[in-house]
Fold this sequence. Notes:
The complex is a heteropentamer, with 1 copy of chain A, 2 copies of chain B, 1 copy of chain D and 1 copy of chain E. By secondary structure, chain B is of the alpha+beta class.
Amino acid sequence: MAWIRRHLLAIVAFLVLFYMLLPNMVVILFSFNKPNGRYNYQWTQFSLDAWTNPCGAPGMCPALGLSLQIGLIASIVATILGTAVAFALGRYRFKGRAGTNLLIFMPMATPEVVMGSSLLTLFIALGIPTGRTTILIAHIMFCLSFVVVTVKARIASLDPRLEQAAADLFANEYQTFTKVTLPLVAPGIAAGALLSFSLSFDDYIITNFNASPASVTFPMFVWGAAQRGTPVQINVIGTVMFLASLAIVGVAQLVNARRSRVKVA
Amino acid sequence: MATESSGDLRLIDITKRYETFTAVDNLSLVIPQGSFFALLGPSGCGKTTTLRMVAGLEQPTVGRILIGDRDITDTKAYQRNVNTVFQSYALFPHLSILDNVTFGLRRRGVSDYKAKAMEALELVQLAHIAKKKPAQLSGGMQQRVALARAIVNRPDVLLLDEPLGALDLKLRRQMQIELKRIQSEVGITFVHVTHDQEEAMTMADTIAVMNAGRLEQVGDPGVLYENPATTFVANFLGQSNLLKAEVVGTPGELADLDVHGTKLRLPTPRLVEGVQTMWLGVRPEKLRLVNGDGTGVEDGLNSLTGTVTDASFTGLATNYLVRLPWGQELAVVQQNDGMPRASVGTSVTLAWAPEHSFALDSRQDAHAGAQDQADDTGAA
Amino acid sequence: MATESSGDLRLIDITKRYETFTAVDNLSLVIPQGSFFALLGPSGCGKTTTLRMVAGLEQPTVGRILIGDRDITDTKAYQRNVNTVFQSYALFPHLSILDNVTFGLRRRGVSDYKAKAMEALELVQLAHIAKKKPAQLSGGMQQRVALARAIVNRPDVLLLDEPLGALDLKLRRQMQIELKRIQSEVGITFVHVTHDQEEAMTMADTIAVMNAGRLEQVGDPGVLYENPATTFVANFLGQSNLLKAEVVGTPGELADLDVHGTKLRLPTPRLVEGVQTMWLGVRPEKLRLVNGDGTGVEDGLNSLTGTVTDASFTGLATNYLVRLPWGQELAVVQQNDGMPRASVGTSVTLAWAPEHSFALDSRQDAHAGAQDQADDTGAA
Amino acid sequence: GSKGRAAAGGGTPTAKAAPTDMSEQDKVVNWSNWPEYIDVNDKNQTHPSIDAFTKQTGIKVNYTEDYNDNDEFYAKVRPLLAAGKDTGRDVWVSTDWMASRLIRLGYAQKLDLANIPNHGNVEDSLANVPWDPGRLYTLPWQSGFAGIAWNPKATGGKKVESVDQLLTDPALKGKVTLLTEMRDTVGLVLMAMGKKLASFTDADFDAAMAELQKAKDAGQIKGFTGNDYTKPLAAGDTAACFAWTGDVVQLKADNPNLGYALPSTGYTLWSDNFVIPALAQHKKNAERLINYYYDPKVMAMVVDYVNYIAPVKGAKEFLVKQDPSVAQNPLIFPSPDVLAHSQVFKGLDPVTETKYNKKFQALISG
Amino acid sequence: MAEIGALAAASEHHKPARRGRWTPYLLLVPGLLWLVIFFVLPTLSLASQSLQTGSVDTGYTMTWNWQTYTEALSLYWPQFLRSLFYAGSATVLALLAGYPLAYFMAQRAGKWKNLLLVAVIAPFFTSFLIRTLAWQIILNNDGIVSTVARKIHFTDLLQFLHLTQTNQLMASPFAVICGLTYNFLPFMILPLYANLERLDARLVEAAGDLYASPVQAFRRVIWPLSLPGVVAGTLLTFIPAAGDYINSRLLGSTQTVMIGQVIDGQFLQVLDYPTAAALSFLLMLTIVVLVALYVRRSGTEELV
Ligand SMILES: Nc1ncnc2c1ncn2[C@@H]1O[C@H](COP(=O)(O)OP(=O)(O)OP(=O)(O)O)[C@@H](O)[C@H]1O
Ligand SMILES: Nc1ncnc2c1ncn2[C@@H]1O[C@H](COP(=O)(O)OP(=O)(O)OP(=O)(O)O)[C@@H](O)[C@H]1O
Ligand SMILES: NCCCCNCCCN
Ligand SMILES: [Mg+2]
Ligand SMILES: [Mg+2]
């Protein structure tokens, strides 16, 4: 009992963590299922079928490809645009700062249905057909704010004296930017890009408003599949994504940890 | 490209105004090539601003800055042959120590940058950690890297803005010796900003004391210490006891002064011209504690009698406070060289040679410079 | 609830082990009620750990802690009548100064907490800024708030962990006086940890010097300084010149020692028992610089002859290095009391009274405690 | 003002054909259909009839089961149709009333009957519908009934055979789903109230809606679904529901305990129809596909699997030959008696349709 | 990815320098233009749409038809309130669950810290739809969870609280809130973590030193200091949760329909654009007002 009281915080923390990871466990488990019929909701039998034939579910791999493609383009564009805005906000004093900040904040304070539907309203009004392009436009739009906030925070934590030191050491404005500022802000930019990718890759609500039947993203495929019976392959993809992100985030953390460990030393 | 021409650093009538505030006020200075120059003054007096103008990180509102005959006032920071060692070191955290040190050389296209950098690192005895990142080093080591990073460029002038401020006492003393050694080895002009008067006095050839954006006094450390020109310098550089004195006559080499009824003397040339009432200044270590009855006082010495109100042992010395009959307390320092100490409450006589005192215009504030630094009633 | 019982603070055979590392090693100490006690030692020697065990923030692995007769070893931090002034101040940034100071009182349900807090703020002369937030204050002011916040609880013991470490020199000296004044006013037991030996010596009634988790010496500042028990204390507390000496005879009150062929003397009781070869120690300020030919040396004094290799003016005093014939350099400090100074290169005689030197076992490392603090070749 | 205007705005209900039909260059046809609406080889999840078509004609069929619900599908393709853009589909399968709307708005292309020689095989009863006289735009794919299905695991072994029971039995509370298909859901309730689907009034409609609202407010109804009712039904998360006949028969293959009932009060009869949308890129291939399925032998193969009613003459004969047991299946071979108890929802003019839709949508999406 | 926490730390420490008069605008233009065209304009378009009358097939005209708003509200206010209630509950639950975990990671985890952080962030990258579908399996009527919940009378408790109407977990308010909590938990944890990591542990010790028991230390020191993280986390959870309909669609019933679902249906099924637009606009307005009030009350304006 005393042991429990002493470790109460750890126990609660691990319960919460369990809660967070439980669905992933289920996804992994059911990627090895051999369902009885078209619905993969009950454990029937162990099988590697889905793993050996991951693209066996018709339409899934193209959807996955489209999502990856959109995620990539959207995060690159959003990162470029957002980083520029973040630099303007973090590095310059200019008229309209407050307005800019508000404009950046608003998309984050707007529910996805509203953003998705309003964009659709615009596209309808302008007679722009929905599809890959409209999805991209939407994704870049909602990723932008997250990039700005992430990069801006990094810029704000940047010691201005480092740039002065560069100037003092004969670096002109351009060299100062490329040799000192950019490398130092890079982790923030990378974080913004990663965040964008995950937001884009995962988005269903906004995408569904602005997609066309010809542009089915992975989440849309999952949604559709959920209506008519999810193929086991979806769990395979879910598992791969989970493991890949574990690896990526893990490596990133390791690098970070090494850096900060050094700092502590 | 910075030119290789060198010479004295000259600030001519420099003023720097920020919106409403004048940080540096009509400052003129000549800093001889190759000298170790210290800039001293209370917080906010404009030391950093002055350095930043020399570095080119700030533009003077008025005035010119020259190195030798070359006017660099309008030259950009990266075009000046001037380098800075920042108080915070400002090492690039993403670059290795070696890359930090080669940074300036590579910007200027020096070809054998690596060899030069290693040489500089050897000078600061850090060649063995060239591959590490700044975060892996201790404060003292980072300090030395910052120094190497600046020195490797052989600038005309090296600016040091409280480079030792963040180090602890012992490390600080050690780095002072190091800095001094390096300066004499490389022969570059050092302009050193510090809060620590002892540091300034032990290291510098010349000290400039600044106050509120203006220059108070410039000169050899000994001269500044023994003969301060203002009450500010007297109080800021070490401690001074200032006694209100009235000139009563100048019979010869020594002038007669009346201090609360006691006759004291001062070499006549030291009197402040055209002023009758003045501050008679004497440093705590110049006062000798003698028996209360004044019997031990040699002829020709000034003396005053009072009561010891505080004695505190600091190891090397003992600090006393002695209250004079009119209530003023004088600070007295006596080296613990084995002479008997006075204890609190006993009556003592303080004696000193007339030539160990100085005079200042009594219209100046007797406390200027004393509170200044300790004044922390405003926000940090 | 903390009880109001009070008394001496006693640490009995305290050991604190972290996994593999022993931070405090079998330490026993008695700190008399109402005393100002200083804990001194190099970085990492276990000072903070000791304090934290007293505060209840850390549990000793072995040993008991008592205040008066009350064993508080197993009492929780918030139940001990002990308060701490942290080096970082650890003021609550979200609370006003007043709320910071009332914090402890309110936790204990004291009813007139506001009046008491204002009283404490007046004690540290900050009553006028009670409504401000910590971030609006300078370092010195924050320091005083931290002090008020602790003192207002009238703890049995007040622990101060380098409370002045972050302040600059002048402010530090001023705060030292303030602290001392407050301690004598409130009469609480102060346990003060510091890196600054001068601070410890001026402030404390008793000093304990720690090294690597163990106690080196405890005693009156003057005794520790004049008669260190180990080379560590000799070097750590101020500076010492240690000369290798051989006892050649103990004719009477004074023993005869041979130091590199020169005969020097030392009061016989000071000899280390049972040891033939020892370190003869003498403090830099005890050495008197006399003419090179030794003519001015009074009878009965020890004397050595050497050459001045360095002289540095610090205002108050001048520090010299004098090289002896066998290559050893002695540090000499001479107060700038107006006596003529020796210049570098001249030959001088150093003289001191035999009773101003001490002896230590020569099997101890002559450099113990000297490098210790300045060593920064490892990462900080 | 918004420019979101239908092509029909101009009043010319003729769907645009693609500028050039890509059928010859591009041997594909893109077909959107409802789930569980085609034959499946359970071993490898392929569609034998489609594979045979490809083998025969060299035309690849991109078969997508993304038609879950008429309204939802319409909402998906409407912006494209309205904007005069290709929908990416060459043919899909819409229920009668939706097919009627598509023709009315000029979103459906006229069939080139020359490409569909099997056109004449359409069942006589379906050859002339009011909204497409002579079947110039559409041809039926399958017909079927909407009735009630249940999973005994979730009902506690209970059968659910009437609409009343479905809407009120406390044992089913919170475990009932109804269809988002207004004509089926409201139709079943209207019939249970004794109304005729060909002649009910607005007041009857409102009464049926009130009935549904009551059940919903009581927490009886878990949800309104398109064709996606099947998974929870099979899983037992849904105890009982309105369902389309063939679906349940297919589900029974995996889960024989599932129950199915055509309520004695009546049930809806409907057809889903091939529609070739405006601007379809492979119209000719689509017509070849339709023609292919109008071969009675092929249709028999499909019907044998999906268990709906074949609209193609002669299919039954083949089926009986192939698999005599299905001849007994009243769902595939509804007896006249079974047919007599089925009803067809009356045609609605656009204004009434909008009015009913709005009320029904408020019910299901609120 | 803990940079999400940057939201909490986005206050500006360094006053930006003033350089180049045109550079900032050049940097801003592309990004802001994007937002103006694809966020502001659509929002205005939405506002305009909400006041038009007509139908998809006949086109719309602007008639300043405010009635759409009153009609939409009178029809759908329950879904509105429900959304706010579910989102609010999920936010509170996420805070209750996320705080201990974030605190543990930030202050107690030691060398496990990074591993835990990875575990928290990784699911974030796994399609949330897939994970939400997994909840269907977990809460499934015959599942272990449901069986246990019935056995320990947890379902009865839920029924008493009106969080389910039957003895099952699925298709209930409970399932929806549980899913919302789950889905937005990382958005709560990361800002909290970022904040708590910077919490000076010495302040907690100081509180203990000043006689605060652990509970008091939490209430008087840790909690107030973590408020910026709490505010950032609750906003990042509440805002998207209020507009979400995935969870209510996949885990709920007709009794749990949220406003996002209504908007989605009105847009994509009913094709009643004015009503849909009016509802969207109302939702946005509600959230902006709530956020503004909340941020003001919690005194962390500098957050945005
Ligand atoms: N950018 C600025 N805008 C307005 N005032 C400024 C600016 N920079 C400096 N100042 C003011 O100029 C004065 C001089 O500042 P400076 O940094 O030169 O002082 P300093 O002598 O270096 O002080 P310290 O010893 O504390 O470093 C200060 O009062 C400061 O507030
Ligand atoms: N939690 C811990 N785990 C392991 N070792 C520790 C821990 N806390 C302290 N130590 C070690 O114990 C030794 C004593 O630490 P302590 O903080 O008491 O030193 P200190 O005398 O206060 O030093 P300083 O003057 O630098 O503050 C150090 O070597 C330190 O590394
Ligand atoms: N699985 C195929 C179901 C087809 C249902 N068609 C809808 C008809 C609506 N009345
Ligand atoms: Mg400065
Ligand atoms: Mg310590």
